[in-house]
């Protein structure tokens, strides 16, 4: 790569602003004339190919992926679209968030044109093709996960009359996804340095394959690939859970692949979406649920936490799994990095900015700490969005292997890595403390809970709910605020302030139909079809 090529995180911002795709007709599988960026005037140098491949990364998960948290029982959102998916009032008119064939069009355009670049290094071309396959595989994975059977575009469509395609079975598309990932892994390095940090590696491709296989109940492939990735010895857990999601953890050994941000080119919007208004100059668009907070164990491993002999009703958030405070601001917490005021206590009962029910206030009495950049003193952030990390690989392996053969020393050892980093008791200690049976069912329940806690705030819980078919259990009924009838001891009652809050309903969810396990195809796409594309059966 040329020494003049700028760092990937900057180039992604430049690509998003400068390389546009023209008049896009998304209703016809995003088929558009490609002359703006694919004619003979473009494909003149290796740098052209690198820039085109780099632009593909804009189709990977970015900061707005966190909105999926608001569609799960982990979060409650003020964003209108997220809220409708969260309380199951969506319909085909608003379901187009992930219905996007532009990545496929761009990928197959790349495959068709890259060979015409004069004098291109063979190894560089193979690597770029592998990077594009990584993105292509992800996009088909996310679309089939949400929509099920969809039209399968596997070549560059040049004739608009050929763009109206019928659906292909999800299982067939997933076979192609796995094949692309296997091909990509063979041609990618294990790591990069310098300007190439942030590009897809062999490990990133393997991490995606593990997730694809797990979500599609191909447990043997998921476990085998996870073992191979762990055996590479390239990745390990970052020592500090909270700091990993700050800039501290960017490109660390736990960060398998992340979408990069910089202050000068492209900042993330996580402060606006997640941040406390009073302490972080955020907007509280998406907040944690009280039910998620209540699901954290005590620091001694008791579950529920109220079973711990050290539990105090006036300090309900103390003596808890340390990941609680690494993820969520609870009433009375001291946040040591206040941005625009001298306020450093999170107080949703009294602080004007965060008061429950206020314009920019908390929905349930909690705010996110995880992923909000503590170093940036403006309404922005420059910490990467960690889309694939080693802790998830460990959890994916544990789940897959337990489904294959039940509890084993291997599975427990992997889970203990995560528990140890969190300063929590071991798996065996926790089971003994709570009187749980160590069998496949019991360990399945434990792994699912551990996933929820470890991955909270990362957008993955929603997909777990869909694949485990838990919607009717966890996404139906009222959502409540914090319940603190005995008062929060750390909140002062001077000057008329209150430290008590009675549980109240802030929203209601209606996951009462199997159709909510799959998204409806956007009505606009069906209307544009000539009768070939039909709505998902449960949504007719």
Automatic annotation (TrEMBL):
For the keyword Ion transport, the answer is no
> What are the residue boundaries of the RagB/SusD domain, all occurrences included?
259-539
Provide the alphabetized UniProt keywords.
Cell outer membrane, Membrane, Signal
Q: Which domain of life is it from?
A: Bacteria
GO cellular component terms, semicolon-separated: cell outer membrane
The family line of this record is: Belongs to the SusD family.
Which protein, by its recorded name, is this?
RagB/SusD family nutrient uptake outer membrane protein
Species of origin reads Sphingobacterium puteale
């Amino acid at each position: 790569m040329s020494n003049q090529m700028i760092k990937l995180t900057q180039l992604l911002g430049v690509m998003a602003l400068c390389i546009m795709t023209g008049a896009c007709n998304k209703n016809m599988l995003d088929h558009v004339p490609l002359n703006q960026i694919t004619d003979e005037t473009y494909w003149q140098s290796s740098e052209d190919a690198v820039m085109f491949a780099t632009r593909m990364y804009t189709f990977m998960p970015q900061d707005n992926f966190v909105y999926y948290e608001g569609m799960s029982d982990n979060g409650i959102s003020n964003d209108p679209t997220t809220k409708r998916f969260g309380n199951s009032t969506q319909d085909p008119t608003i379901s187009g968030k992930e219905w996007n064939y532009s990545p496929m069009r761009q990928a197959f355009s790349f495959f068709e044109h890259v060979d015409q670049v004069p004098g291109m290094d063979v190894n560089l071309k193979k690597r770029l093709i592998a990077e594009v396959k990584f993105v292509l595989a992800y996009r088909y994975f996310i679309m089939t996960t949400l929509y099920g059977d969809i039209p399968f575009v596997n070549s560059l469509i040049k004739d608009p009359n050929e763009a109206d395609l019928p659906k292909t079975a999800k299982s067939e598309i997933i076979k192609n996804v796995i094949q692309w990932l296997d091909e990509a892994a063979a041609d990618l390095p294990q790591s990069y340095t310098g300007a190439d940090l942030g590009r897809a590696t062999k490990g990133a491709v393997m991490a995606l394959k593990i997730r694809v296989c797990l979500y599609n109940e191909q447990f043997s492939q998921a476990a085998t690939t996870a073992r191979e990735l762990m055996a590479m010895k390239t990745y390990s857990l970052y020592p500090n859970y909270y700091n990993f999601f700050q800039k501290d953890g960017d490109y660390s050994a736990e960060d398998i692949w992340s979408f990069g941000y910089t202050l000068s080119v492209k900042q993330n919007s996580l402060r606006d979406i997640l941040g406390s208004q009073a302490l972080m100059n955020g907007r509280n668009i998406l907040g944690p649920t009280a039910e998620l907070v209540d699901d954290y164990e005590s620091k001694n491993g008791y579950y529920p936490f109220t079973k711990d002999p050290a539990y105090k009703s006036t300090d309900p958030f103390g003596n808890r799994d340390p990941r609680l405070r690494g993820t969520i601001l609870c009433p009375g917490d001291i946040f040591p990095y206040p941005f625009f005021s001298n306020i450093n206590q999170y107080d949703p009962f009294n602080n004007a900015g965060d008061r429950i029910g206020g314009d920019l206030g908390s929905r349930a009495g909690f705010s996110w700490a995880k992923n909000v950049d503590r170093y940036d003193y403006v309404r922005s952030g420059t910490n990467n969005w960690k889309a694939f990390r080693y802790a998830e690989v460990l959890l994916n392996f544990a789940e897959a292997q337990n489904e294959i053969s039940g509890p084993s020393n291997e599975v427990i050892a992997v889970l203990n890595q995560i528990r140890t980093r969190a300063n929590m008791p071991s798996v065996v200690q926790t089971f003994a403390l709570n009187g749980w049976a160590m069998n496949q069912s019991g360990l399945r329940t434990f792994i699912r809970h551990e996933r929820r806690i470890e991955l909270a705030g990362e957008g993955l819980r929603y997909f777990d709910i869909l694949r485990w078919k838990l919607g009717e259990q966890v996404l139906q009924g009222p959502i409540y605020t914090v319940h603190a009838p005995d008062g929060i001891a750390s909140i002062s009652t001077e000057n008329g302030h209150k430290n008590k809050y009675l549980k109240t309903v802030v929203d209601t969810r209606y996951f009462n139909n199997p159709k909510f396990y799959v998204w409806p195809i956007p009505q606009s796409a069906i209307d544009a079809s000539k009768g070939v594309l039909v709505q998902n059966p449960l949504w007719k």
